[in-house]
Amino acid sequence: MASESWLTQFPEMERADLVAIRKALDGAYRDFSRSYGEVIEAVFDPLLYFLVWFEKLLLSSPWWVVLTVVVGLVYGASRSWKLSLGVVASFLAIGYFGMWENTMRTMSIITVCTLLSIAIGIPVGIWMARSNRARSIITPILDIMQTMPAFVYLIPVVMLLGIGKVPGVIAVVIYAIPPVIRLTDLGIRLVDKEVLEAAAAYGATPWQRLWSVQLPLAMPTIMAGINQTIMMALAMVVIASMIGVKGLGQPVLKSITNQYFTMGLFNGLAIVALAIMFDRVSQAYARRTQRHLGGAQNA
Amino acid sequence: MLEPQIRIEGLYKVFGDRAQSVMPMVKQGRSKDEILAETGHAVGLNDINLTINKGEIFVVMGLSGSGKSTLIRHFNRLIDPTAGRIMVDDVDVVELNAKELNQFRRQRMSMVFQNFGLMPHRTVLENVAYGLAVQGVDKVTRRDKASQWLDTVGLAGYGQQYPSQLSGGQQQRVGLARALCTDADILLMDEAFSALDPLIRSEMQDQLIELQGRLHKTIIFITHDLDEALRIGDRIAILKDGKLSQVGRPEEILLNPADDYVEAFVRDVNRARVLTAEVVMKPPALRLTTENLDEALKQMRGWKEDYAYVFYEDKYQGVVTQEAVEEACALSDATAPTLHDMAEEGPTVQPDTVLQDALPITLESEYPVPVVSESGEYSGTLSKRDMAEILAHSNVKSEDKSAEDIAAE
To answer: 0.80 cut: is pTM over it?
Structure first.
């Protein structure tokens, strides 16, 4: 009889055992977060101060100052009047529809997340490109980061750090960092072998080779990675709002729970507008600085 | 004059994870294919021994897969050998640690690449100055020196362009300027001209020969093109399946191929464009060493031929016939012309004239043409028959082959 049940029913472990395992893991993690939570929070304090400072800066400056600075940056990066005018129009519309403050909050967190992702992602990508062993270890971790539902890793982060900006940033960075790591690795591996050999043949040290050849030649690919990272960070804004990150995500969340269609649509459109701005500006910047590389590929 | 600068001794390269464990098989003389099938390791170089002299252009020739690119990358250790020594002057390159190796690459050797290996994100001037930048030379010195070399290769005014804005030939000139800019005395050229179209290629070859005439670098040049090898090489090494088939001067390779492989290569070469007068000429003969007509006649009667070459104060004057000398002897001393009055001003060729250019001169001349250097030194004679023999040789062989082929069918 026993064999029959083994054939028709999957041989599961005892329910009691499963509960014991869950209890043990949850308990262990709870103990861990209780005893080390404060230390770990302290580690992230500088990040928190910076986040708060940057958000305050954007919110307390008069709207026309922020707009001028943003348009200045856009024009400096893209050298395109069309794009700059588009940015002005978008921001004016956002402000007119009463979403200025939330947009500033979202911009501040996206900027910090992007900078953090670049600061961590590029060195990790370089490391991956140099060592096949590092690559074989990091690749599955990146796979997990990209496919694991965001809600699942929000749980331990919140358990450890509570609700607020820092856990929000951590969640966004975990979700958004894989593209910049992967594409840094790919970009460096795709660098023309002969150019690299040339640098070596003239006695360049590994460090000189990295700075004078590998990074500049990988830059178009790395820029594509940064672009993707920004897009993913913006997409994560709504989910991050569930753990107390203020910004455009919160009204969206409110609209979902209360079925406010128009409110959701407006805030959603504001996120889209931000995404398009970041995307076009970073791409225009990449194109402008790498124009002479394009010619080489045609020749 | 010939001072060895680079010595390669017992150089082996096996590609694979456990290269050392495969070495005994290689040394037993097992074939490349056998070793690959049995162990999955590829034999790149097999017992290479070479001596390269200071100031010569040493060409390594082979088809793709022969290991020539692998070989040139051992000189500056872009590839590490499995066994063997690479001595440059008194330095064993194989023994250098990372820091010493970088120093060695900066000062002793520079390299030119098949696809130029230029950095697309740097201007032409920055590319040329790259070697100096790596060494930490200051910006002003770097710029001055780089633009000076850019002038030398004929690209003055292109400094601010990017490589992608230049044609292939111009890009390789940048590659050459970059190599010269570090003042390294050894130049490695890996199929440097192979990616260029034929007209530009021969232009670049001329430029290289012209530059070498001034700079006297030791150049190691890799090519798959025998015509190029014969044209620029002082000596040529022929590589097959990672082994050296033959090393020698161009005419040695051409006239005495060491094995069937080399012979197959050499068969289709246009000898008239490669061989020079001094290779084909017969030793000097029929030289009149006297001014006295009677003695001259006596000398000439002793020779089989009825003509002789007249020299005056060691300068070639022309040809006289025995008949003319006899007639002159019959005249009274006062009216008799001197030997060099009688000498018919005839054509000469220089020792380094290629047969292609010497051929019309020899054909038009009634007598074998004397080979006389620029300083007037008489080094031999070039006859129609000698030339015909040398030039016909290769063709006769290939005709024999085709006759055999037809017979076989």
So the answer is: no
Average pLDDT across chain A, whole number = 89
For the record, the structure tokens of A242 come out as: 């569930």
One-letter amino acid for residue B373 of the chain: S
Side by side, which strands form the sheet with B307-312?
B287-288, B307-312, B315-321
Alpha-carbon distance of A187 to A193, in angstroms, equals 12
Shared domain for B225 and B287, answered yes or no, is no
User: B397 to chain A, minimum CA–CA distance in Å?
Assistant: 42
Does residue A169 belong to any structural domain of this protein? yes
How many Å apart are CA B199 and CA B308, to the nearest integer? 44
Q: DSSP labels for B359-380?
A: HHHHHH-SSPEEEE-TT--EEE
Residue A112's contacts (CB-CB under 8 Å, 6 or more residues apart) are A47, A50, A51, A54, A169
For strand B307-312 and strand B287-288, is the pairing parallel, antiparallel, or unpaired? parallel
Interface of B with A (CB under 8 A): 73, 76, 78, 101-107, 109-111, 113-121, 130-131, 133-135, 162-165, 178, 182, 188
Domain end: B242, B269, B296, which one?
B269
- Rounded to the nearest angstrom, the minimum Cα separation between A126 and chain B is 19
Tokens of B152: 């030398």
B52-74 pLDDT, tens digit per residue, is 999 999 999 988 888 899 999 99
Q: How close does chain A come to B98, measured CA to CA in Å?
A: 9
Residue keyed to tokens 């690919």:
A221
CB-based burial label for B244 (10 Å; 0-12, 13-18, 19+): buried
A58 touches A67 (CB < 8 A): no
Per-residue tokens: A296: 């080489």
Taking residue A126's Cβ as centre, other Cβ atoms within 10 Å add up to 21
Give the count of domains, chain B.
2
Scanning the structure block, which residue is given the tokens 């050849």? A213
Which amino acid type is present at position B20?
Q
Assess whether B12 and B87 both reside in one domain: yes
Contact A298/B164, CB-based, under 8 Å?
yes
**Identity at B51, one-letter amino acid code:** T
How many Å apart are CA B259 and CA A28, to the nearest integer?
Answer: 78
Selecting from B116, B120, B182 the residue whose C-beta is nearest the C-beta of A202 gives B182
Q: Please tell me whether the interface predicted TM-score (ipTM) of this complex is above 0.90.
A: no
Which is nearest to B160 in space by CA: B150, B152, B168?
Answer: B150
- Which domain covers residue B377, as residue numbers? 279-383
How do residues A60-119 score in pLDDT, each as one tens digit? 999 999 999 999 999 988 888 999 999 999 999 999 999 999 999 999 999 999 999 999
Domain that holds residue A232: 45-65+94-298
